[in-house]
Specification:
This protein has helices at residues 8-20, 23-30, 34-48, 64-91, 103-120, 174-179, 210-217, 233-241, 251-260, 291-315, and strands at residues 53-56, 59-62, 96-101, 125-130, 138-140, 143-151, 158-164, 167-171, 194-197, 228-230, 246-250, 273-274, 278-284. With 316 residues, the protein is an alpha/beta fold. Helix 7 (210-217) links the parallel strand 9 (194-197) and strand 10. Helix 1 crosses helix 2, helix 1 packs across helix 4 and helix 2 packs across helix 3 (34-48). The protein is rod-shaped, with a radius of gyration of 34 Å.
Length: 316
């Protein structure tokens, strides 16, 4: 007899009754009456021409044939479940990634480079979150949550991948220099408005600023520290581009603006202040990334390495 001719409702009723050897429990799981389960099992037995249960006054018990059929049905259900999973995998959406990064770094360094990832590799839906909070990275099935952070570490309970270090130096709009005598020494900054980023970071106290730069340049007693502070590099940079002051800039977030010429370095490659902070990619310490997320991590580390070799080496 072909399996497709057997009544599926009867097979289901039998499978449930076989698990507990109880028509009553099977009825409860199926949402029908015990009498309905009994009739469906009897229908299946009639079709097969063999008894599957031994009936007793106090209940039913699987016989040898019933045990074998129950085993075969369970095996078939496992294959069906595996087939469903395969079908779901084939239609599953593109793997996903949630990447959290400092706002200005995200806007000014990472975003301009993501188009290259999409063009060269792709195959990953990337959501971006502008944040400095130390959220916990996690693998999430077909995706992941990762974080880029600017700090000194240590980074507990995560794996830290070094991206690059940082250096700070003054930048301003070319128009600002055209309106005044170009500074030739750090002491000339006394005649300009200094713009400073008040870093919104869990480790902001360790980030050097104008005070440290002026100390290193030996003019702290000649130049008043700045009174204009901004919570984001992008805000201070907009003011600098508009010619409203000189900004102490972090190289990764200002590099593209220097290359485009909207900002310049009034002291050239002199008077550069090394930062103790580094940019780190944080990933979960346990588990594995999906192939698509792993490709993104490899790409990001390669981009960071190339940037570190070229831009940072020149600026130091």
């Amino acid at each position: 007899m072909k399996i497709e001719r057997l009544p599926l409702n009867a097979l289901r009723a039998f499978a449930e009754a076989a698990r507990t050897e109880s028509f009553k429990h099977a009825a409860s799981r199926l949402g029908v009456t015990p009498g309905a389960v009994s009739r469906q099992v009897k229908q299946l037995e009639d079709r097969l021409g063999v008894l599957l249960f031994a009936r007793h006054a106090n209940g039913v018990k699987l016989n040898e044939v019933g045990h074998q059929l129950a085993h075969d049905i369970d095996s078939g259900l496992e294959r069906i479940a595996a087939g469903v999973v395969t079908a779901q995998e084939s239609t599953r959406q593109t793997p996903s990634l949630m990447l959290s990064a400092p706002p200005s770094f995200l806007q000014l360094w990472l975003l301009p480079r993501l188009a290259a990832f999409d063009a060269q590799i792709g195959g990953l839906d990337i959501s971006l979150e502008a944040s400095q909070s130390l959220t916990t990275p996690a693998w999430q099935g077909n995706g992941a949550r990762l974080a880029i952070r600017y700090g000194r570490g240590p980074w507990p309970e995560v794996t830290s991948h070094h991206l690059f270090g940082d250096v700070l130096f003054p930048v301003c709009a070319p128009s600002l220099l055209a309106q005044h005598d170009q500074p030739v020494t750090p002491a000339d900054l006394a005649h300009y408005t200094l713009l400073e980023v008040a870093w919104d970071s869990p480790q902001s106290a360790a980030v050097p600023g104008w005070k440290e730069w002026l100390d290193a340049a030996g003019v702290a007693d000649q130049v008043t520290p700045p009174k204009r502070h901004y919570s984001l590099s992008g805000l201070a940079m907009d003011q600098a581009i508009a010619g409203r002051g000189i900004m102490l800039a972090s190289l990764p977030v200002v590099m593209d603006r220097l290359e485009s010429g909207v900002l310049v370095r009034p002291f050239g490659e002199q008077h550069v202040l090394a930062s103790p902070m580094t940019y780190e990619l944080l990933t979960p310490s346990n588990g594995e990334a999906s192939p698509a997320v792993e490709r993104f991590i490899v790409w990001l580390l390669a981009e960071a390495s190339a940037f570190d070799r070229s831009a940072l080496d020149k600026a130091r």
